[in-house]
Amino acid sequence: MSDVATEIKVPVVPAELVREPLVQNNRSFGWISDRVSAITEGKVPKWWWAAFIPSLCLLGLLGAMLFYQITTGVGVWGNHHPTMWGWDIINFVWWIGIGHAGTLISAILFLMRQRWRTAVNRAAEAMTIFAVMCAGIYPGVHVGRVWFDWWLFPIPTYQGLWPQFRSPLMWDVFAVSTYFTVSVLFWYVGLIPDLATMRDRAKTKVKQFIYGFFALGWTGSNRHWSNYEKAYLILAGLSTPLVLSVHSIVSLDFAVSQLPGWHTTIFPPYFVAGAVFSGFGMVLTLLIPLRSMCHLEDIITMRHIDVMCKVTLATGCIVSYAYVMEFIIAWYSGSAMEKFHFMNRALGPMWWGWVMMMSCNMIVPQLFWFKKVRSNLVLVFIMSIFVNIGMWFERFVIVVVGLYREFLPSNWGYYKPTWVDICTFLGTFGLFFTMFLLFMRFLPMIAVSEVKGVTPEADPHHPSAGGHGNGGKH
Amino acid sequence: MNANAKPYGLIAEFENTSSALHAAEKVRDAGFRKWDVFTPFPIHGMDKAMGIKNSKVGWFSFLGGVIGYSTGMLMIWWMNAVDYQILVGGKPMFSPHAAFPPSYELTILFGAFGAIGGMMFLNRLPKLHHPLLKHKRFALATHDKFFVVIETADPKYSESETRKLLEAAGSKRIEMVEE
Q: What is the per-residue DSSP string for A91-105?
């Protein structure tokens, strides 16, 4: 009886409330840097070459296509009156949308203290940078005379002319170039401590010099960490409104015009949600094979995949809402042109584009409601590719279907891409994958210092770190 | 040890975050000025344990942002309304609404430059040389070990007393680093 009375009651956390650890199997700090660095230090695996050589060939194809297009003219593409924007703008918007997941993961999830981001942010940021590079090619070459591209920037010229800042296309120049620059800076700042790790592990003088050069003499001093963490927080704070503004401004390229189907106020939020949706699709497409090929299952765990599926589902629902709302507003507006445009979108000659968009973006992601689906890697991988396809068709529907049935029936036309359009698009995949494969071979593709920071031992109050407090309960 | 080498400071190694944190508190309370803790990742609470004030990086970023926004607005006003006027659709020569998106982007761009520039300036990076980087064990500071370093230049420094303090803080491995 007395034994029972003196027993101290420790509140037991119910099993369903205990979160899975972010790094599985209680891996140590050393294991994390060894595991991640092994990808860059070991022998080049065969699958890497098997992926790299085709990517390099596609990159060559891109070079050839751009050379052909620049020396011949934009007539080699399928862009013709009335569809003056075709695959060039579709692919520009598609690639830049993919880039948005990287900044969302690195900035917005950082501000929201979503600690799971540490496992995927480095690769997602790299994906952002390479996707924006692919996107940037299109507006650069679709102007036709690429040697006048510098007119886009406010550089004093012999003509005394300046860019016309009332045009949303001009806003886009600033948005996309700022986005690229800030993404690169954010990525690089995150890399500095890991480059120092690579420098300190380097076996050869050359490696030590190169990693050391880019690590800027980082020592891990806490006085430095203090300023570093503040700078990182500010960059996250700046990147959050940046990422929201970039796709909003891309959408203004359409929404500021007077065209039915384009001239809508729903575009900015709908474009941003769609961008994040497609970006997470691409993150899943890349990371599901990589985590098993690079043996990173303990760092990029099933919990990470699960959360990313949920984000895809949430943003998929937002775009679905926008698709439906566009129809309702077209009906409610009472504008004959608006009504015609949306009827034509679903039932016109290009109905298949709309069907692809609706089925891939609205119906397929609904499967993510089921835990069984979210934990089936093969299924998640296939669905992530459907998301990418669906988002491509969304831009097809907006750009091409928005243009080929104009106000006057005498202006109506049809659109078909040429082989140059198709090969240029394939070529951008070459650029994207070549860059990504080089990145994962030469740089730590997981943010080593950040992952160490979210392990239980990193918390000085946790028993495993030698502390006596109640760590691990938050 | 090289007889000609000037001593830089005492380096004490710690195995885990908790002992490094408590060691930092002891060194802080002993009143040292020229000392630091080196860790593979930022440790929560270490700034307080070392007595470091809030970082000033924010001011650099703020300054960058203000410069960016005013550059954008002034540039667009001067280019489109003063230096070479182009009338488009009867719209005003300068309108803050149309000038806002590019200025907003420039605010972010310059703010980011400010944050990174400020961080590099306050940390005195890039640095080509640091005495600690020559020390063999120190490579583990970016791997899985934690180090407390007290410089000989600190007015409170005395080889035996400081060593005792670090031993009392729980370090099993204390060495002298040369300049």
A: HHHHHHHHHHHHHII
Lowest mean pLDDT among A157-161, A242-246, A268-272, A395-399: A157-161
Residue found under tokens 């003056």 = A84
Q: Give backbone dihedrals phi and psi of B177, rounded to 5 degrees, phi first.
A: -105, 140
CA distances from residue A406 to A86, A339, A409, A410 in whole angstroms, order as listed: 15, 13, 7, 8
Q: Where are the domains of chain B?
A: 7-55+131-178, 57-123
pLDDT band at A8 (very low <50, low <70, confident <90, very high): low
Residues 6+ apart with CB under 8 A from A375: A302, A305, A306
Nearest by Cα to A239 from A111, A145, A412: A111
Show residues of chain B in contact with A223, CB under 8 Å. Answer: 36, 50, 52, 123
The answer to whether A245 contacts B88, with C-beta atoms less than 8 Å apart, is: no
Best mutation target among A161, A221, A454 (most B Cβ atoms within 10 Å) is A221
Q: Is A221 helix (H, G, I), strand (E, B) or coil?
A: strand
Provide the mean pLDDT of chain B. 90
Tell me the residue type at B41: F
The predicted complex's ipTM stands at 0.92
Q: Do A308 and A283 meet the contact criterion of CB atoms below 8 Å apart? A: yes
Cβ neighbors of B104 (< 8 A, separation 6 or more) are A241, A245, B69, B72
